[in-house]
Amino acid sequence: MLLSVACLTLALSGCQSTDLAQGVTAPPLPKAYDVAPYRTATAKANTLAWWDGFHDRTLSSLVSRAENMNLTVAIAHQSLTAARALANSATAGYQLDTSMSGMANAATGSRIKDDFTRRPVQLNLDASWEIPLFGQDKQAQKMSDLTVAMASEDVAAAKVAVTTEIASNYVHLRALQKRRFDTAELIGLLENNAKIAGVKEQAGLATSVENEPMRAGLDTAKSTLLLLDSEIANTRQQIATLLGTSTPDPALMRYEPQPVAAAGMAEGRPADLLRARPDVLRAEYAVGQAAAQVGLAKADLYPKLRLNGTIGIGTPVSNSILGAFAGPSIQLPIFDYGRRKDVVAAREAEFQQSILVYRQAVLSAYEEASRALHELNAARARTALLRSRLQRVSKLKTSTDILVREGLAEKSKSIAGAIDLLDLRAALTESIENEARATIAFYKATRGMQPATPGDDAKRPAKMEGRK
After folding, report:
1. Which of 98, 164, 323, 386 is 20 to 30 A away from residue 413, measured at CA?
2. Strand pairing partners for 125?
3. Which CATH code of 3.90.226.10, 1.20.1600.10, 3.40.50.2000, 2.40.50.220 fits the domain covering 2-459?
């Protein structure tokens, strides 16, 4: 019997290096976009933060502060700290476990006293070790490491969401302030027009019915100004919330020019950058974690081996105060083997599910980047057209002003030209905002908008290609 136990112990020990984890190969990413006319990003562009491309100090300051002050980012950091702490003891269950115990037996008699485990007074040192068969310790550590990696990507995703939202809100705020400035100027022009119309009406050269649309336009402009003031206040408050405070930044109270996206900001093939997205990386790590779960479930189908031992010090028996015993124990999955098979089937299904989730994440990222790129191209083209048209209208306005000064045209024509110019400026303001926000969306959809930090790759688990 002892010989059989010893042989079984040796056989199970030889399984310690066996790995039952599911083989993993990451699904391929798209090779290129059919709407990607941009060249590969330069090294300089990769080392700069994306927001520096707007050349706006206030924006750069807000984004930097948001990364350190935003509460969502802080929550994600705490989750990462917890995951790292647990990863330090991921294989503690497969290490030597020791404990101290003491006992006193009230029974007497030579037979009991001669029994090592039944001495009247005894202090024991117990030790046990579960041998990690079939790579159980490696799979447990891999799962913990991947949990840390996923928590790290959650931090990156939180930063992406926060920096994207704060940048979009800032771009929107500056556009609102520009529209408010133009609307106030428009109200001044409409008021001048209303005065001229009133003079004509008193002189009998116009009727109140003819002047009513002009007065209605003035009322509409004043109403728009009130709405703009409300939206500006709300946007400043949203930015304050993203900064983890309830007090808007005083720097946002004063008017500043609109941030304009630099021409070379959106560079590189999006498909080459998709794997840097935090959500794509997280989904990829989840596949590896599900594979490790399969390995642990399969290991539970086989016997488990534990070595136990005790050294005791107690009342003398046969002139000795010491006693010891040791031996293996084997757990055989007999009566619950069917349940364990079901667990394996469930884990394999979850593994296949994680692959589908990964592929869906890649497809969603591809679609998001493609949409952002289309919107960016359209916004750039529209902005260029509006700038060209604004130059032409400005020249016509200058010619009209000359005729008015020379008395060759009515002043109302100059005012009408100024109103047309303001309408065109409003359209250009909206287009510049759309282009900036599309640029932000493009960066978010491709590389997560985070500048590469030296050493980041070393902190991430190896890619899954070829991993078995």
Report:
1. 386
2. 100, 311
3. 1.20.1600.10
